[in-house]
Amino acid sequence: MKIQALDTSVSNWSGDCLGIGFFEDAVDLDPDLAELDQRLGGVCQELIRETEFKGKSSEQPWTRIAGQGTLRKVILLGLGPKDGFHLDNLRQAAATVVKTAQKQKATHVGLQLPLWNEDATASAQALAEGIELALHQDNRFKSDPEAQKSGDYPQTVDLLGLANQGAAIEKAQQICSGVILTRELVAAPANVVTPSFLAETAAQIATEYGLTLEVLEREDCEAQGMGAFLGVALASDLPPKFIHLTYKPKGTPRRKLAIIGKGVTFDSGGLNLKVSGSGIETMKMDMAGSGATLGAAKAIGQLKPDVEVHFIVAAAENMISGHALHPGDILTASNGKTIEINNTDAEGRLTLADALVFAEKLGVDAIVDLATLTGACIVALGDEIAGMWTPVDSLAEELSQASQRSGEKLWRMPLEEKYFEGLKSTIADMKNTGPRSGGSITAALFLQQYIDKTPWAHLDVAGPVWTEKEKGYLNVGATGFAVRTLINWVMGND
Ligand code: BES
Ligand code: MN
Ligand code: ZN
User: Of the residues 271, 345, 370, which should be mutated to test ligand 1's pocket, given the most ligand atoms within 8 Å of the CB?
Assistant: First the structure.
């Protein structure tokens, strides 16, 4: 599928499916559209009248065109009020059109949409992202080749009135290759995506885009005293892998950053086994933080910013066996802090503890971790918003801005020190879980114990990494959440 930015006006364009955007209460045809409409015998005006189209964001009427050259379909897209118009409206609008085109087997699509903020580059990038992400289909595990057929449509998408935006489109495609890698890692089952598979994926990224890779094996982790991480891996037959992938720019880096992703390739809960109805069958997605980390690495390797980035994943499986961690065991993390395990299902924070200590030793300017850490965060924020915890206001601001541009929602949550009471242990430095209430906050407070002085933010992405409903450019299943936000953050929102 080819996306191209063309200077062509709507009335001069030829292709078989045309999507035209309108703001709310602004559905008059401009002169160029009026000319096209006249040639089509007034079908656009008729569609507006018949469907009482007002340009509201939920409205997407379309009509078939008979016998008028190649054009077979016109879709009107409601964009909602001009005031609240956002880059994500462009992604969503582009997704609607290409998905309709795909279902209707249209090969050549044209998109006529207004610019966001008069910024042609950002608009072209957002449109291309919406198209790429909407059309991504995952047929890896289907035996029927017929299932792939709709993948042939459309073949070309033209962004009209956006000449010379080839670079923005290429950037979008590089970013989306990262998002798609993330989606595929998260969607693949735990018998495919193992800790070793994550390490091999990191190796492929390193080879392809010139990053450096260091993988610490169990013994290496033992030597570094990573008792918390290794405790989680105890019961699995699969070896843990501590993955450290580094992107270094050519010259002196403007900043040094670390991104850490939770990489629990399956979370059974351990001996505090997840009971039926607790979502155990979805726990292949408990490596979504690491999926986003590797997806971001793949994109950064292509975008080549002047920032050094360390991508870190402490990958393991949380299983049961005679080797399993017992509830009550005490583990010592690599910074010397001891943890009484009062729940083996709070394993993510154990893997992250050693990863945070490792990241801080690299001397980076800031650390962001991403984790499907708590069900409590989903209870608090639902499945479209990730929680963000950080003691540093400027880092919160950077991440919020990055998320506003990506359309991936974050909400800052409190690091309420008083709640650390709930993690106090009589026998060790702390327990790994506190009371049920405020569960996502105590999880963040636990992680904070493993940060000394580096600016740090924790993103609990348990909700938005997966969707059961198709939503615009998100298809059912893994969403690839956080990759585009991370890229914006690293690139400095430029
Ligand atoms: N991976 C889960 C969190 C999770 C739950 C992610 C649902 C996505 C959907 C995590 O390891 C976990 O089990 N957390 C426990 C913590 C509890 C034992 C304190 C939880 O949220 O129930
Ligand atoms: Mn768990
Ligand atoms: Zn987990």
Answer: 345
Return the amino acid letter for 262.
K
Q: How far is CA 420 from the centre of its chain?
A: 30
User: CB under 8 Å to 104, separation ≥6 — which residues?
Assistant: 17, 72, 73, 153
Measured between alpha carbons, how far is 268 from 466 in angstroms, rounded to an integer?
18
For 248-307, strand residue ranges (E) read 256-267
Residue 73 has pLDDT above 80, yes or no: yes
Write out pLDDT tens, residues 317-327: 999 999 999 99
Mean pLDDT of the chain: 96
Return d(Cα 267, Cα 345) in angstroms, integer: 8
- The domain tally of the chain equals 2
Is 168 contained in some domain?
Answer: no
| 51 lies in some domain | yes
349 is catalytic: yes
The answer, as to whether pTM is greater than 0.70, is yes
Between the CA of 440 and the centroid of ligand 1 the distance, in Å, is: 9
Nearest Cα to Cα of residue 120 among 84, 176, 164: 164
